[in-house]
Design a protein that fits this description.
The complex is a heterodimer of chains A (109) and B (114). Chain A is 0% helix and 59% strand. Chain A is mainly β and 109 residues long. In chain A, strand 4 and strand 5 form a beta hairpin. Chain A is globular. Chain B has no helices and eleven strands. Chain B is 0% helix and 48% strand. The chains are: A mainly beta (109), B mainly beta (114).
Chain lengths: 109, 114
């Protein structure tokens, strides 16, 4: 059974820091991995999707990497801003999406 | 503007009452999904539909029902058989592809049992 874990559960950093969020999964037989952002009381916003054949994807200050063999993905956020404060979720896709419980990020001025 | 809409934003249910949550999309996506989100837990799949007039149970379908009469619409009914329905409900959609199913989400409905 596929399990997805995100560490740390919460993170607080000063503005301007580069930071890394981690996602690990137990079964490497996935089609893709998706990173989402969720603001309090809101739906999920898709940030990046990495196909299983890809190693990384970039969008602006965000870079996501995938190492399928070791069951790991990282989301790198460069030059963090207070507006980046949110919960970040990763999800792996096989026959359905399996979600981690998220990392709650706070960026303070 | 393409997207997914959910209504209402907040919903209150009395014990023993059925309620229906609306989900509409204008992305021309074939597949639609319903998830439930509880504090400290990941999203859990309730039902999904890959094509009109067809749907499958997810991991926690008991106490819920759905219909898919139109491509754009996938309403979720929370029945009185669902013993702990208080949660945040999220609807999503994607193109119908087994290997590439980037999902897009609506704003959610928060259901509270009084």
């Amino acid at each position: 059974k596929q399990e997805v874990t995100q560490i740390p559960a919460a993170l607080s950093v000063p503005e301007g820091e580069n930071l890394v969020l981690n996602c690990s999964f137990t079964d490497s037989a996935i089609y893709n991995l998706q990173w989402f952002r969720q603001d309090p009381g809101k739906g999920l916003t898709s940030l990046l999707l990495i196909q299983s054949s890809q190693r990384e994807q970039t969008s602006g200050r965000l870079n996501a990497s995938l190492d399928k063999s070791s069951g790991r993905s990282t989301l790198y956020i460069a030059a963090s801003q207070p507006g980046d404060s949110a919960t970040y979720l990763c999800a792996v896709s096989a026959d359905k999406l399996i979600f981690g419980t998220g990392t709650r990020l706070q960026v303070f001025p | 503007d393409g997207g997914i809409t959910q209504s209402p934003k907040y919903l209150f249910r009395k014990e023993g009452q059925n309620v229906t949550l609306s989900c509409e999309q204008n992305l021309n996506h074939d597949a639609m999904y319903w998830y439930r989100q509880d504090p400290g837990q990941g999203l859990r799949l309730i039902y999904y539909s890959q094509i009109v007039n067809d749907f499958q149970k997810g991991d926690i379908a008991e106490g819920y029902s759905v219909s898919r009469e139109k491509k754009e619409s996938f309403p979720l009914t929370v029945t009185s058989a669902q013993k702990n329905p208080t949660a945040f409900y999220l609807c999503a959609s994607s193109i119908f592809s087994e290997r590439y199913n980037e999902q897009f989400f609506g704003p959610g409905t928060r259901l509270t049992v009084l």
